[in-house]
Amino acid sequence: MNSKTPLSAQEIALELGLDPRHGEKLVYEHLRHIAKTIRRQSKGKLSLYMIPPRCRNCGYVFKDLDKPRKPSKCPRCKSQRIDPPLFKIMSS
User: Fold this and answer.
1) Residue 21, Cβ neighbours under 10 Å: how many?
2) What is the pLDDT of residue 6?
3) How far apart are CA 10 and CA 82, in angstroms?
4) Nearest to 63 by CA among 81, 75, 51
5) C-alpha neighbours within 13 Å on the C-beta side of residue 11
6) 39: in domain
7) Range of 74's domain?
8) Which terminus of the chain faces fewer neighbouring Cβ atoms within 10 Å, N or C?
9) Is 2 part of any domain?
């Protein structure tokens, strides 16, 4: 998988050929392990970066997530129109 643009967990799941109904959840569950593996195999030269989710309604950015996920609603305006987090492998 090679992408110049950041990908969502759903896009990663589709690229990997995972079941569309459950693939996104699997990607979120394994992102920490994936990040560690990328760092270890590249000897610290590459890292997995996350662009945090953002509310499409008010622009609120979810910076303080305890783990990668797509929040269900915005704490500021209560909108459910949330852009998912995006992931990209880049040089450290």
Assistant:
1) 8
2) 96
3) 14
4) 51
5) 13
6) yes
7) 7-91
8) N
9) no
The number of distinct structural domains making up the chain is: 1
pLDDT score at 5: 93
**Burial grade of 57 (CB within 10 A; 0-12, 13-18, 19 or more):** middle
Task: Judge whether 56 lies within some domain.
Answer: yes
pTM: 0.86
CA nearest 68: which of 17, 23, 9? 9
Half-sphere exposure of 87 toward its Cβ, with a 13 Å CA cutoff? 23
Distance CA 71, CA 73 (A): 6
Q: What is the pLDDT of residues 31-87, one digit of tens each?
A: 989 999 999 999 999 999 999 999 999 999 999 998 899 999 999 999 999 999 999
Contact present, 58 and 77 (Cβ < 8 Å):
yes
Nearest CA among 74, 72, 73, 71 for reference residue 85: 71
Rounded to whole angstroms, the Cα distance separating 44 from 80 reads: 37
Whether 1 shows a pLDDT value over 60: the answer reads no
